[in-house]
C-alpha cells in the first residue's frame, strides 16, 4: 500500500493525479473520481467521501448498476481472479474468506449463484466490517429484498467500502 496523500495536496492535484489517487476507492469505476474532481477543494476527508457518494447518487441507474457489477463475487472463481485487484483480495482475506471449510465454500458458491440469478449483480458487502459467518447470515436476508431495496443496500455497502479505502489513501495532515 502506498503512502497516504495529504488532503491539501490532493485538493491541489491535477485531474489525473486526483483520479489516480481517489479512483481506486470505487471498484473499477474511476468515473466517480473524475466527476467529483471539479468540486474541490474538500475541507475534510469526510467531505470528500460525501462528495464521491453524492456523485454515485446522481449517476444514472445504469451507471449505478455498472458500479455494483464491477465488484467481484465473494469467494469463488471471480474472487481468485488477479484482475479483481489486491485491495479486494486483502479485504476478503481480512474477513476470513480465504480460509473456508469445504462446506462454507459450497455455501458461498450456492448463495452467490442464487443472488446473481435473482438480482443480476454480485452480492456486495463491506468485508472489512464483517466476518465470514456474518456474511453468510446476510445472504438469506438480502435475498428476500426487492431488487430496488437490494440496489440501495449494495450502494450503501459500496459507500462503506469506499470510506475505508479512502481513509487508507488520504490523510487530513497539512501539506
Radius of gyration: 17 Å
CATH class of the largest domain: Mainly Alpha
Q: Segments where pLDDT lies below 50 for 5+ residues?
A: none
Query: Which percent range describes the beta-strand content?
Result: under 5%
Number of helices: 10
CATH-defined topology of the largest domain: UraD-like
Largest sheet: 2 strands, parallel
Structure commentary:
The protein starts with a strand and ends with a strand. It is globular and about 50 Å long. The chain is mainly alpha-helical. α4 runs antiparallel to α10 and α8 packs parallel to α9. 63% of the residues lie in helices and 2% in strands. The longest helix is centred in the C-terminal third of the chain and has 23 residues. It folds into two domains: 67 residues, UraD-like (Orthogonal Bundle), CATH 1.10.3330; 86 residues, Oxo-4-hydroxy-4-carboxy-5-ureidoimidazoline decarboxylase (UraD-like, Orthogonal Bundle). It contains ten helices and two strands; from the N terminus they run βααααααααααβ. A two-stranded parallel sheet has the order 1-2.
Amino acid at each position: 500500500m502506498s503512502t497516504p496523500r495529504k488532503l491539501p495536496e490532493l485538493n491541489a492535484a491535477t485531474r489525473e493525479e486526483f483520479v489516480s489517487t481517489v479512483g481506486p476507492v470505487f471498484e473499477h469505476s474511476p468515473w466517480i473520481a473524475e466527476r467529483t474532481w471539479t468540486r474541490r477543494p474538500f475541507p475534510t476527508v469526510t467531505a470528500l467521501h460525501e462528495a464521491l457518494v453524492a456523485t454515485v447518487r446522481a449517476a444514472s441507474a445504469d451507471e449505478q448498476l455498472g458500479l455494483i457489477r464491477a465488484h467481484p463475487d465473494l469467494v469463488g472463481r471471480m474472487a481468485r481472479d488477479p484482475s479483481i485487484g489486491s485491495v479486494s483480495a486483502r479485504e476478503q482475506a481480512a474477513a476470513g474468506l480465504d480460509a473456508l471449510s469445504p462446506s462454507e465454500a459450497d455455501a458461498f458458491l450456492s448463495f452467490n449463484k442464487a443472488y446473481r440469478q435473482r438480482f443480476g449483480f454480485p452480492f456486495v458487502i463491506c468485508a472489512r466490517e464483517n466476518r465470514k459467518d456474518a456474511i453468510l447470515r446476510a445472504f438469506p436476508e438480502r435475498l428476500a429484498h426487492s431488487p430496488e431495496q437490494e440496489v440501495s443496500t449494495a450502494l450503501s455497502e459500496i459507500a462503506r467500502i469506499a470510506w475505508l479505502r479512502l481513509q487508507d489513501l488520504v490523510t487530513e495532515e497539512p501539506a
